[in-house]
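Encode chain A's predicted structure.
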Amino acid sequence: MNKSFTTIMISVACLLIMTISTMAQMTPQPADTEKTPQYGGELMIASRSKPPHLNSAIASGMGTGIPATQIFAFLLRLNHDWEYEPYLAESWEIAPDGLAVTFHLRAGATFHDGMPVTSEDVAFSLLTIQKYHPFSDMLAAVENVETPDPLTAVVRLHKPHPALMTALASPMTPILPKHVYGDGQDIKTHPANLNPIGAGPFQFVSFTGDEIVLEKYPGFFLPGKPYLNRVIIKIMDVSVTLIGFETGSIHLAGFIDIKEHINQSATNQNMRFAYSGYEAIGPLSWLAFNVRKPPLDDVRVRQAFAYTIDRHLWATVRHGDRAKVATGPISPDSPFYSDDVNTYPVNTELANRLLDQAGYPRNDRGVRFPLTLAPVPALQDDISEYIKSALSRKLGVEIKILHFEKFGDWAKWVANSEFELALDTVFNWGDPVIGVHRTYSSRNIRPGVIWSNTQGYSNPVVDGLMEKASVEMNVERRKALYAEFQKQVVDDLPVYWLAEYPMATTYHRNLMGVVDASVWGLMFPFTDVYWSKGTSQQ
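Encoded structure for chain A:
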């Protein structure tokens, strides 16, 4: 047996035993309660992703989303029970045919420069998002936005859109000030992206180095909110985050890999953690194939890899008793999930036969072909080594791992289709129309745009199924369409799905209003977050 592979498997086995043993002893600890919210104090948040800018109208991801949900306001909010709540819009009506939604804005809501929020800002924002956001299907059904008066916006659709309300209550649809962003400059490079003006509970102060500083906006449209004076987001590595909790310089971290934090949560009396709050995220770890490049343009090669990589073993090792294998493009937690797909059980004999049939025999060194593998920085190093070893030892495929120190460099490499294999964790975003279609739609092959269809995958049958599901208002018929969609995409394998990435929020025991506040992780407005009475953070 290959010595390096033996070492990897011994490490894997040890990690599996330790992880399962540790996690079996742990249960989430409830937060301390304080009935009367307290005013004041600052909140230090750790984020592992440095955003390229702070405008979530043209970018997705938690790096941008966490600060943007404090800076900008949205028409609606989505609570932990998946109920739509008023936010900038205090009420709304949906037309009987579902082709129009009329939103009534709050009187007196202003942007951070004091200018009023009007229906013109809503129209400008939604049409901008429709044009520039990487999730092209999210608002594709919007035909126009009428503005009969400053406080009324009528969103008209050219087809039914079952995901519209969820989209408008998501971190990806901020209401931008038209008087700032509508000045004729290219919004992708607009200077306001790094010095944003919004209508959210906190206003932008600075973004220097690895720190984003926000301060309470005194003119916020919800009376008495927010409670905190300042929010400071520090971009840092996971290992430094743990030290921050120990020293008291960090109070909150979300989208946390449970394996990394669970032992520290057990020993630090000031730390608490919660698994809930990520229901709309649906994070899936996957191995992406650039299907435009040989040999990955041959589905038999992609299927051979799937029959070789043991994702059941990997999911259990990585995530312990909370592991969920990802069998396809839709998260197992989604109501539209179907497991009626090819599950690719490990079958090395079949995998080698597929590669032979595809015309890639082994050479005199036992090698079929080389490939490069680009894992997203800081998140996938361990599985990269496993995949490299498995494909080399079992299939004769040489894998060179490309290490990118900066996320931006990795994102550019993948978005511009320079990659062959890539490892990433990608979100479902509440509804398949919002977060799933973007990866598989042939209309969303957009060079230079990360988290679009960077694989270059195109199948007219899949496009048709997504189009039907995107206008089907009957839930059961949508489920049937998505079941067929999942089966077809899993057969085509533009990516090989590994596991649903179980996430947790780690927070200071005296921090209130974080747990069960949202379904978007930490990408929700901190209007009701506060420090309990007498804590040192006030």
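Residues 55-60+69-184 form a domain with the Dipeptide-binding Protein; domain 1 fold (CATH 3.90.76.10).
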